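tl;dr need the bound structure. longer version: we got a ligand (zinc ion) that a collaborator sent over and nobodys looked at where it sits. i said id run it. heres the input, straight from their email, havent touched it
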Amino acid sequence: MSRRQAVYTACFAPTHKAVDSLDDPNDEAKRKEERKYTRQFNDALKKQLQRSVPTDATDAEILAASQQLAQNGAEMVEAMSDLIAASGMLGIETAEDQFGTIGIAFDLSFVNQQVLENLRTAGIQEMGLINGTSNKRLQSALQAWQNDGRSLQDLSEAIAQWVESGKPLPTLVRSLERSFGGVRNGKSRGLDIAVTEVTRFFNKALNESYKQASQETGLTIEMRFVTANDSLVCPICAPLGGLTFSGDGAVPTSRERQKAKGQTVGLSDKFVHPGGKGAAGTYKGQSFGIPPLHVRCRCDIVPVVVV
Ligand SMILES: [Zn+2]
Ligand SMILES: [Zn+2]
């Protein structure tokens, strides 16, 4: 692995444990959710693929079915909706804990339903994006197969065999394995989706909870960007989380300095990348919403009460 690749692994690696996961007592609960939903999404993606390229159908019927990918994703929707409920509740509970540690007792239980409803709306949009990616990958695989002069019926047989017995897909369409739930070296699309979406809905729940708390208490509350205090954090997340990025990677620092330097903005505002040396410089001035900032980002936000 080159040094440059190594730089990115704290934000991306599935099993990486932060040296000092700042203010995040629920880290292990999130990891557990990620593992559970990785399996669910991978299973759901396989079923979605098999239904979208049915066996015992003509090539024309297969082409028509492959356009209906969204309709074949009931299990995807179910996994996403479970994930949103679980990550949303964890976010709400974490917000309560965070307020507790800074001396504000605030019961968010009466806003649960509204927060979760807002998350569900965002979830429908996310599902559309995920299906859009799946659809693009499937259509280009079908195209490649047909360009090779082969019948889609043969492809549908190969897909059924892969899903049912694990027999590898032909090289020409091998990318379908990765796109639709296959696991290789511990990596899978299900893992990408699970980690990214747990981060998204956990942080959305935090952000909405902070807004509710601000409204109810009249306090001005802002949010601070938190990343792992680790040399392997990526050049997008490290400077926002208060780590200096040198040409070689992120430079771990004290908790105090990470707290002081982590970017803090209003609850509806964007984080603006401060730049940095090496790869971090390319992001200078770009604005980012609450994490995830990229696929498999695991950064968080914490509340900051302005006094
Ligand atoms: Zn990152
Ligand atoms: Zn990140």
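gonna send this back to them w/ a short note. The first strand starts at residue 220 and ends at 226.
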